[in-house]
Specification:
Elements lengths: L4 H11 L4 E5 L5 E4 L1 H7 L3 H5 L2 H5 L2 H17 L3 E8 L5 E12 L5 E10 L1 H22 L3 H15 L3 E8 L2 E9 L2 H13 L3 E2 L15 E3 L4 H7 L3 H9 L4 E9 L2 E10 L8 H38 L10 E8 L8 E9 L5 E11 L1 H18 L5 H15 L5 E9 L4 E7 L5 E3 L5 E3 L17 E3 L7 E5 L10 H13 L2 H4 L3 H9 L8 E8 L3 E6 L3 H18 L6 H18 L3 E9 L2 E7 L21 H9 L1 E8 L3 E7 L11
Antiparallel strand pairs: 1-2, 1-5, 3-4, 4-5, 6-7, 6-11, 7-8, 9-10, 10-11, 12-21, 13-14, 14-15, 15-16, 16-19, 17-18, 17-20, 20-21, 22-23, 23-24, 24-26, 25-26
Helix pairs in contact: 6-7, 6-11, 9-10, 11-12, 12-13, 17-18, 18-19
Length: about 675
């Protein structure tokens, strides 16, 4: 266009177009802008003609926009690009820019004419919808509240904000739950500030705390005065200022009328302040996060009720019978679905016989826990009527039909006679307990009855005439073997563990089984009940607990003095104990189990740790002053048959025959 009358008329017409219009020369510099450009940017004509378009571009869009325009000029093809332009108010808005070349009469390109159309609302709406879809997905996929807010924070930063903070209400206090920033140093500093200025009561006058007012705190520019009002003292205000807060949106997390917390999104000085559209997006985001938080709290409350009820229903103490050691463990699942209906029980009848039961009610939650308690109690009532295990299951099945005819449960009931060590038992669809003989053979107890609640009973009682000392009976619920999602692999892992005689000498065999099989946690509740037959002595303590270790050492020596010949070498036995425990302290600090069993006339000391594998040295180390290997050499020299081997999932099992002989009644 020239300065002709026609050109001036055309430019006046372009001034009336509801879009930004510009003309650039062959160097890409703007040589004319319509009035809408000046209205939007606030630039003067001199500023506009001196590279004003490039200066109005968002810094993050400058390179791609100019590069795309340069490619279009070189190829002669039309130009198209979406970028942000800064308005006279300092706020960037999205525009779609399009341009095409102008030609002279000979077809040569003389200049480029382009437009920039405001698409901010459409662009931000599309980005917001995509962001909310991603946020909904990460919130829904999280397995717990920590994972949900952690994933949300990583999505918010840096897409929407530089900081994402979540504060939750606990006992009328606002406490930090999530603090996220791309810079781990800043993140650590923020947590340190929160620790030094801990939870505070709800404050309706605090502009950063909208909980009591239930409204949104929208602070486009965070001034020192705003920070000072929210700080506890001058030092606190200075620390907050170091975090670089520039613009803030705080939205209460409200569900069903209850204020649960606050979601705070913060931008620092390197980014544009939050626009009203960002505030609206934060509100919708907080609404979805509040639903997740509310559901998590409801589920957690139900789990707590169910767990409390279940713990109250399980036996607080286990019976004590001479020659028998009972151990139990219960593991709640690590999922969100709630606690299940697993149980274990052990009690003594009036005639001295021991009754054990273990079972699993299908389902989870409070209902399953209540039904579990009812079935466990029904077994107790039936057992005290002097009924056999099969008859006990029949009456328990009737109780289930009366209370919850739509539910199913599995159960195992055994009655042990301590006079003969005979066991009579029956099972209703429960995983068969495993009996480990003193020789290490594994026998799955014969079972065959259907689960409770499925129809007519066909229970049959079975009897083991006598269980030999040194045997271990392991009963469990199916969460133990199904934890691997492959029941065959779970049963293989259990059997491999039980073949190792370390289970006999563990201070708590039930916990030993749990740790050895459940390497990766469990997707279901797990109950384990173990009966150990024999009179071995056991001690359990943390190897780093000097007082507990000293007490166990003294008890060990007292035990030997009561049961061994008076002339025995107790000093050497005590030294062996000390060296083995010391070896654990040096190389595998943590829980340690110690047991003494009598093998004919000689006691055998067993030490179980949780450390890395090691081998027993047959000679002193080359450096006789070195601590490495010297203790085991001393043990080998003072004792007999020293051996060490790895046992699945737990650590090492060291065995040594002590230099003493039996001289009195065996007992614990």
């Amino acid at each position: 266009m020239s300065g002709s009358v026609e050109a001036r008329a055309e430019r006046r017409a372009l001034d009336a177009v509801p879009h930004i219009v510009w003309i650039a020369n062959l160097d890409g510099l703007g040589e004319w802008f319509n009035e809408r450009w000046y209205d939007y940017t606030g630039q003067t004509p001199q500023e506009a003609l001196a590279g004003g378009y490039s200066r109005a571009l968002h810094p993050d869009d400058l390179r791609s926009s100019t590069g795309t325009f340069r490619s279009a000029m070189e190829s002669g093809r039309p130009y198209h690009h979406e970028h942000r332009l800064r308005g006279r108010d300092g706020v960037y808005r999205w525009h779609v820019a399009q341009a095409r070349p102008l030609h002279d009469a000979d077809g040569r390109v003389t200049s480029w004419i382009g437009t920039a159309t405001d698409i901010d609302a459409r662009r931000r709406a599309g980005d917001a919808m995509a962001f909310l879809a991603d946020a909904t997905e990460v919130l829904g996929a999280a397995r717990d509240l920590d994972a949900a807010f952690g994933a949300l924070a990583k999505l918010v930063v840096p897409a929407l904000a530089d900081w994402c903070l979540v504060h939750l209400v606990r006992d009328d206090l606002i406490v930090p739950h999530t603090i996220h920033h791309r810079d781990p140093v800043k993140r650590a500093f923020a947590w340190d500030v929160m620790r030094r200025y801990p939870a505070r009561p709800l404050d309706p006058l605090d502009p950063l705390d909208p909980l009591l007012r239930r409204d949104v705190s929208y602070v486009p520019i965070v001034t020192p005065e705003v920070i000072a009002r929210s700080a506890s003292d001058e030092r606190h205000a200075a620390d907050l200022a170091l975090l670089g807060f520039r613009s803030l949106v705080g939205v209460p997390l409200v569900a069903r009328g209850n204020a649960l917390g606050v979601l705070q999104l913060i931008r620092d000085g390197r980014r544009d302040p939050f626009a009203p559209g960002d505030r609206d997006l934060a509100v919708v985001l907080a609404q979805r996060a509040a639903v997740v938080l509310d559901n998590a709290r409801i589920a957690d409350r139900e789990r707590q009720i169910a767990r409390t009820f279940q713990e109250a229903s399980l036996p607080r103490t286990l019976p004590r019978l001479d020659g028998l050691r009972l151990s139990v463990t219960y593991l709640a699942c690590d999922r969100d679905a709630g606690i299940g209906g697993d149980w274990y029980d052990a009690f003594v009848l009036r005639d001295g016989r021991l009754v054990i039961s273990i079972g699993d009610v299908a389902g989870n939650g409070v209902d399953a826990a209540v039904l579990m308690s009812s079935l466990r109690q029904a077994i107790r009532v039936a057992a005290f009527r002097a009924l056999g295990p099969d008859e006990i299951l029949t009456l328990t099945d009737e109780a289930l039909a009366n209370e919850a005819p739509e539910r199913i449960a599995t159960a195992f009931v055994g009655i042990l006679d301590p006079c003969t060590w005979s066991l009579t038992y029956a099972s209703a669809g429960h995983p068969p307990p495993i009996l480990r003989t003193p020789e290490g053979a594994l026998i799955a107890l014969t079972t065959g009855g259907p689960p409770l609640g499925v129809g007519a009973r066909t229970d049959v009682a079975h009897t083991i005439p006598a269980i030999a000392p040194g045997s271990v009976l392991v009963s469990y619920t199916d969460g133990l073997t199904e934890a691997t999602h492959d029941i065959i692999e779970g049963e293989r892992r259990l059997r491999e563990l039980l073949r190792d005689d370390a289970v006999v000498h563990a201070a708590n065999p039930a916990r030993f089984v749990r740790d050895g099989v459940l390497e990766d946690g469990s997707r279901d509740d797990v109950a384990i009940l173990v009966l150990g037959f024999g009179r071995d002595a056991h001690w359990a303590f943390d190897a780093e607990d000097a007082m507990a270790a000293h007490g166990a050492r003294s008890s060990f020596v007292d035990y030997l003095r009561r049961h061994a010949e008076p002339a025995s070498d107790f000093a050497s036995a005590e030294l062996i104990f000390g060296e083995l425990v010391g070896n654990v302290v040096r190389y595998a600090p943590g829980p340690i189990d110690v047991a003494v069993e009598w093998n004919d006339e000689r006691p055998v000391l067993h030490v179980l740790d949780r450390g890395a594998p090691f081998s027993v040295a047959a000679a002193l180390p080359e450096n006789v002053l070195s601590e490495n290997g010297r203790g085991l050499f001393i043990v080998d020299a003072l004792g007999e048959e020293l051996s060490a081997r790895r046992h699945p999932g737990r650590g090492n099992h060291v065995r040594v025959v002590l230099p003493v002989r039996h001289g009195g009644p065996r007992g614990t």
